[in-house]
Write a structure and sequence with these properties.
Elements lengths: L7 H15 L5 H8 L1 H17 L3 H14 L3 H12 L3 H13 L3 H12 L7 H13 L3 H14 L6 H13 L3 H14 L4 H12 L3 H15 L4 H6 L1 H15 L5
Helix pairs in contact: 1-2, 1-3, 2-3, 5-6, 6-7, 6-8, 7-8, 8-9, 8-10, 9-10, 10-11, 12-13, 12-15, 13-15
Keywords: Membrane, Transmembrane, Transmembrane helix
Protein name: Tetratricopeptide repeat protein
InterPro entries: TPR-like_helical_dom_sf, UCP030959_TPR_rpt-cont
């Protein structure tokens, strides 16, 4: 269906053209995209856009989501096979991430721990992964302790994912004042809508109905202005905000 007088394939080509200019790709991509907007966009997506997206957290989530939809257990099977072939740190990290994605965070913990006993013992990314496994495995105190130690050792280290894990851990420990401070800071700079959704749910769980509802409404108003690709990346979290808003906006039960 045409959009504002343009074919959808031209709109997609324009999106990839903007990406090519912004990321400094070779100029011949612009010719390919507009001379052959359908096949050109497909080639650009496979050759340039998707590989780049794999290096961002949201991109990994998007690509991983597509893979899981097609074959939910494939990544876990392949990661298990890789560790059986070679139990190196990289393969253990891959398996740990697959366990977390499969909702089996407790099984990820020993693999992250094993990776940290190797030459990567001071790798902050592995420590952040382990903290997430602790948190989602039901051990928020261990997650917070690990991240506190990481911050003390590497005060210049910055990780939005680690910050979100820390905020969630503090909230799970019912340290409300610090949790509020951490989430308010996250909302100010975090690229996605996950902190907003999680914070609204936490506020609702604390009985802060009005604050949770206001955060939902404000976030959903802002989400309407997101470009389509960003809405796709945030679909899960916007959906959770919508469902929470609906439940909070209903009549109060006396």
């Amino acid at each position: 269906m045409p959009i504002a007088g343009l074919g959808l394939h031209v709109v997609i080509a324009a999106f990839f053209a903007m990406h090519a200019v912004r990321t400094g790709q070779d100029r011949y991509w612009l010719f390919i995209l507009f001379a052959f907007p359908g096949i050109g966009s497909l080639v650009y997506a496979i050759g340039i856009w998707l590989p780049e997206m794999r290096h961002t957290r949201q991109g990994r989530q998007l690509v991983g989501g597509v893979k899981r939809a097609l074959d939910p257990s494939r990544e876990l099977r392949e990661a298990l096979d890789a560790v059986e072939t070679s139990a190196n740190a990289q393969n253990r990290m891959r398996l740990a991430e697959a366990f977390v994605a499969a909702g089996r965070a407790s099984e990820a913990i020993p693999h992250y721990q094993a990776a940290l006993r190797s030459v990567h013992k001071d790798d902050p990314a592995i420590q952040v992964g382990l903290a997430r496994a602790y948190l989602e495995g039901g051990h928020p105190a261990e997650a917070r302790k690990l991240l506190d130690e990481l911050i003390a050792r590497k005060p210049d280290f910055r990780s939005s994912e680690g910050h979100l894990i820390y905020a969630r851990a503090v909230a799970a420990l019912d340290e409300r004042n610090q949790a509020e401070e951490e989430f308010e800071t996250l909302i100010g700079y975090y690229a996605g809508y996950e902190p907003r959704a999680r914070y609204a749910e936490i506020l609702a769980g604390w009985g802060e109905r009005d604050r949770a509802l206001e955060l939902c409404e404000r976030s959903l108003r802002e989400a309407k202005r997101l470009p389509s690709y960003s809405r796709s990346m945030n679909k899960e979290w916007v959906g959770r905000l919508q469902r929470l808003q609906k439940s909070l906006a209903g009549p109060l039960v006396s």
